[in-house]
Design a protein that fits this description.
Blueprint: E1 3-7, E2 10-13, E3 18-25, E4 33-39, E5 46-51, E6 58-60, E7 68-73, E8 78-83, E9 92-99, H1 102-107, E10 111-112, E11 116-121
Parallel strand pairs: 2-11
Antiparallel strand pairs: 1-3, 3-8, 4-5, 4-9, 5-6, 7-8, 9-10, 9-11
Length: about 120
Amino acid sequence: QVQLVESGGGLVQAGDSLTLSCAATGLTFENYAMGWFRQAPGKRREFVGAISGGGGVTEYAPSMKGRFTISRDNAKNTVYLQMNSLNAEDTAVYYCAADRNLALVRYRSTNWGQGTQVTVSS
């Protein structure tokens, strides 16, 4: 019933910015923390960041802090990932995820989107 659909991925050059979106249906959106993860070829899925249900608390992996920003618009049931100063190491499939709080997003992430490919060329 819960569906998460990412969009906004594509091919960009190093140094560019890109914003990903994730639209959610089948849940009371404001009651769910939302997270972003990524998976590069040959690597395990990596936590990028997350935002609390009301949008008041955000957390980021150290390597993403300062370059990536998570926000949400609860009226639109959508969470965003703004990525700046992209480099080749950011190339990955990016997934959004949902669970009842920030800790659960990182620990289990009950619901996942299908992913969107981000490719950064040098």
